[in-house]
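Write out this protein's structure.
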Amino acid sequence: MDTKEKIGYTPLEKIKKKPLSKITIQEIAKEAQVSKQTFYNYFEDKEALIQYIYVHFIIPDFDETVFPVSFFQSYLRSLKQMKKYGSFMK
């Protein structure tokens, strides 16, 4: 797992114990074992991180370059991911 993915997965784990609005960038960086500066090297702010998580972990198959070739499978996988990360989606 590369650094950006590691940072991205961190809120998905932390949200099980704490609401996303209460999770700080400092906590995310510490949990991902990176500095705050490293976080900012990859993400402008927490909103950018949230967008990254949604696009790369929750709906990764929804890529306009492959539509509509595998829409049904993409749709099913995305629904499963939304269910898995339901607490994040709230």
